[in-house]
Amino acid sequence: MTPSAGPRLRIRPSLGLAALAMIAALTLAPAPAPAAAAAESAGPPAPVSLRCEYLVNPMGIDMPKPRFFWVNGHTERGQVQSAYQIVVSTDPQADAGDIWDSGKIASPRSAQIAFAGKTLESGISYFWKVRAWDRDGRESAWSAIARFDTGLLAKSDWKGAWIGRKNQLRKEFSLKGRVKRARAYIAGLGYYELRVNGRKAGNHVLDPAWTTYDKRVLYATYDVTPFVREGANAVAVTLGNGWYKSRALLLQLNVELEDGSAVNVVSDASWKAADGPIFADSIYDGESYDARRETPGWDRPGFDDKDWPAAEAIDGPKGVLSAQLMPAIQVVDTVVPLKMTSPLPGVYVFDMGQNFSGWARLRAEGPRGTDVRLRFSELLYENGALNQETLRSAQAEDHYILKGAGEEIWEPRFTYHGFRYVEVTGFPGTPRLDSIRGRVVHSAVDPIGSFAASKDVLNGLQRIITWGQKTNLHGIPTDCDQRDERMGWMGDAQGTAEEAIMNFDMAAFYTNFVRDIRDVQDEKGRITDTVPHIWGSRPADPAWGTAYPLICWYMYQYYGDTRVLEEHYDGLKKYVEFLKGTAENGVLKWSHYGDWVAIEKCPGAIVSSFYYYYDVKVLADAARVVGKTADAALYDKLAAEIRTAFNREFYDPKTGDYADGTQTANTLALFLELPTEKQGGAWGRLFDNIVYKHNSHLTTGIIGTKYIMELLTRNGSSDLAYDIAVKTDYPSWGYMIANGATTLWELWQRREGPSMNSHNHPMFGSVGSWLYKALAGINLAPGTTGFEKVLIAPQMVRDLTHASGSTMTVRGEVACAWSRTERSIRVEVTVPFGSEAEVVIPKLGIRDIKVSEGGQKIWEADRFVVGAAGIGGAVDKDGAIRITTGGGRYVFVLEGN
Ligand code: BGC
User: Is 746 an active-site residue?
Assistant: First the structure.
């Protein structure tokens, strides 16, 4: 068995019709006769997409019981896993699990399976594989081998010392034998680039992710086996300021030689240090690089460093060292500029055609000492010159000073910008279009979702949402990527979380982020508006602090992650108890931001009280999940009290409104079903406000916007939600697109001046989850987790003739693509292996309905027709034919008169 890089989680292209028909035909074919033994003995396909702690072959696992995940490759409908077996071994060749053999475990689960073998040790490569049995007891082949490497598990495993201040650090060492295995563990603050024998280790940039350094410092683990060799070696690290705003390195290179001996190279005062060509670096202001100061060969053995002083021992950060177990920030894409213009002599402006986070790669040739200046902006003035006003105080300016050695190619390491336009001045000669390339840089979470529809503005919306979302993932979810902020504002983070989960594989990223939140919590239970905490207050506005319970809860709902609730239960309880301590008669009267950037702003108290209720309810539910039944009862009771207080405080029986009757005020009350029979007016008031007062436009800020679309759909007004979604005049998402947005704006208003008006601010993208849930119809079935039960309920509204969406869940792909003509509706559905689905096909006034699946009749004369594989039944209820299925791919066609 040789370790193989497990397949990355990717959306499979949807099968064409013909293929689907073939699968249907195959599943319908009679069971093979005993003679057809080949197919039968082959058994179900082996499990695929093996992951450990949500990651493919992770390096640096540092928890005692990492969790395993796989996807069953079965294509047979309605199949379920009846059992599995996992083996974990230190020997990739061995078939038995010397570390863990789970034995055959009767269970349908293929996600969140915790390791339960021997104690894991530091710095070891573990290999694992899994096989599964299906419902009929057929055994699959073993999966391909996956692996995980443990990090340095105990503080005492770290033998080195923190060194730093200068930005280039190097060390040579010699190995007296052939190398069997080598691992580098590195915590390099603010940012580092690690090179071994002249080559960069790994593909991380702007690493490690930003944390509260006095609480937790992330280290990365690299397999550098191919980099080190017998004889002379050099390890070299460049450091940048990053968010740490200083330079500090802790490194350990553990080498095992073939003769069984081990060599540890660690950071200490025996290293040499000097300041290299980077003479300024700041996240906001840019990087300056003088190529004349390069010292070629400094990252290789044999370099003469006798003039370099010894590295300085420094006090490192106080935080515990913790493995970075999430996708690192990487250069994810390279963008070719659309065009170059020259608004003034010697000033060249490149249009990348897309607003994104990253930097520019420069290609230039010219005299030594030429200072090429690159400046970045989201906007241009009418005369074509760069408009940097939205960056506020961020300088966003890089310099490259040529060494004068033919063609020179350079890109910065320790800064990033949010931009669409690059201005080049000081260029030797006239640049060409290929003098500049855009480098798209963000946390490299896998894109796992897709959404498309027959209405163009919705496709545009999906595009600006996903560009905005991914370019605001920089180790933490940021508010914006360009101006002097880029903070982990928690209100923005909680509002976009569901959208992000549908579009990207956020599991490992959020696992880290909720730890980041815990890191800022104080003994009173208070958390902060931004995490790590730089801007904003402690305590956080309740609509911001709610990111802690809500993101934990979304992880439980979407990924079936119970561990996150166990791990954070105490923190969540402390947080809720803090809120409770500030409540007055069951409501929270304090608020910092309320429904932020609303057009019609409601009182902050109703927003805070809504989240107080929400958080208490989530805590009660979390208590049930982790088995704290007494707490569950306690918080259920508290929730009921808050509900009464909320209605007493905010409902106005004279108007029928909550608070001031703004869209957000009524939406919040209705979204959590706070009204009792006595507060019956709010729904009608909300509907009238949207339709008659605002001609189907929103006046909500980020809080109301998160809930209003889903509320409308839940209450049977998907048509209205759609009307809002496809508007192109102010205020609407379409208005942003019509005005050239390539990422979401911070404000509904079009502003381009020096005030707060970022043009890449993902928070209004919360509507992204509504696109999936309502229009593509992809939902968790109520009360279920991890997509074990899927509710496919597409809203076929107004002039929309088709929509499709798919997302990769922990159990496999969920997809729905529907289209319709006057008298027929076609719905293609993918349900993960082992899951169940209810597929709701609206009748849309069609009569004498017949439904077929893959050509076979399943509904006729108002009755379900038994027989199609994987389909459990169908009923006609609430204006729709509701079909129950098991896992598999299905093509339903509903027709009639
Ligand atoms: C940020 C927002 C954030 C807000 C809080 C702004 O400066 O950019 O996105 O949520 O402050 O009030």
Answer: yes
